[in-house]
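Postdoc handover notes: sequence design on the structure in folder B. Input tokens:
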């Protein structure tokens, strides 16, 4: 079976700005593939170049076995796309908008089914200009789903959604895969990528810095557990001493969050040594906890900073 997407050495430059700088990856058919990275990393530029909204500076792109530079019209008939800020007709209703987009595809879902999948069934008669920000975002996702495409491209699909709507959309994305389609999504939410994606790439400053399944990325980068506590205001000397306590597992200080994270293969020894050390300093440890490593830890290790979720 052919891969859903194949990208080789894709570049997109704007004068001296390298928005996408030589990325290469493959998306397997009937999988959920994620592109994870902070805002401005090159995620949207990559997805817009793949679907033909932008022309790449260099590189090759194949979607469903078709080279997009030659057959982008054929590609567009077989994919659905959710953009972050789609331009819609404000006076049309939700139902009319879905009906309009359905006409672009050979075998679309029904308007009712596409609306149900994102929780907009009760809003079909509402005009676009009366929708809340969250409803507009869900409509954008529904416009991708109505294509009934072989690949559904979702650009930051859960941004701006409340927790329940976000979890509901996760289940919708899983159902898309269960029904035989491929999902290509971008996100800056670590938990979203970890829970949803079969494979993902981590992108930063236009370059891919890691590739693999979430579990594999965590396992390869962290054969450790994380010991986390609130930063009590440690001096630079005290911070250096913590490196020895972490048993060579590494250390991160999240300045914005006010947290210290030690990575250790021997958590019991690390916690004991940490408590003994802070007692000698006369420092109290607040919010001490032990947890498994996450994609947040992977990104911290690879870039030296955390992704800021807005």
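Designed sequence:
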């Amino acid at each position: 079976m052919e891969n859903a997407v194949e990208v080789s050495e894709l570049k997109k430059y704007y004068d001296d700005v390298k928005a996408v700088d030589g990325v290469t990856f493959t998306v397997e058919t009937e999988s959920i593939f994620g592109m994870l990275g902070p805002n401005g990393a090159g995620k949207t530029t990559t997805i817009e170049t793949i679907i033909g909204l932008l022309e790449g500076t260099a590189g090759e792109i194949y979607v469903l076995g078709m080279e997009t530079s030659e057959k982008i019209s054929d590609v567009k008939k077989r994919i659905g796309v959710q953009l972050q800020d789609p331009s819609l007709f404000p006076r049309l209703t939700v139902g009319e908008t879905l009906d309009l987009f359905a006409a672009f595809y050979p075998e679309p879902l029904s308007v009712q089914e596409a609306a149900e999948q994102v929780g907009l069934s009760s809003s079909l008669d509402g005009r676009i200009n009366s929708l809340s920000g969250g409803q507009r975002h869900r409509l954008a996702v529904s416009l991708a789903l109505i294509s009934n495409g072989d690949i559904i491209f979702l650009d930051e699909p859960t941004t701006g959604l409340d927790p329940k709507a976000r979890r509901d959309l996760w289940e919708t994305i899983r159902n898309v895969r269960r029904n035989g389609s491929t999902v290509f999504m971008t996100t800056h939410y670590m938990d979203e990528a970890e829970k949803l994606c079969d494979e993902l790439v981590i992108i930063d400053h236009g370059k891919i810095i890691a590739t693999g399944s979430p579990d594999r990325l965590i396992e390869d980068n962290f054969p450790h557990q994380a010991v986390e506590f609130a930063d009590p205001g440690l001096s630079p000397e005290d911070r250096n001493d913590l490196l020895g306590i972490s048993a060579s597992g590494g250390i991160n200080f999240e300045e914005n969050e006010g947290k210290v994270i030690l990575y250790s293969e021997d958590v019991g020894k690390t916690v004991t040594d940490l408590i003994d050390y802070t007692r000698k300093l006369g420092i109290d440890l607040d919010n001490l906890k032990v947890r498994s490593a996450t994609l947040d830890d992977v990104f911290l290790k690879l870039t030296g900073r955390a992704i800021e979720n807005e």
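Context for whoever picks this up: The chain is about 35% helix and 25% strand. Don't rerun without checking with the PI first.
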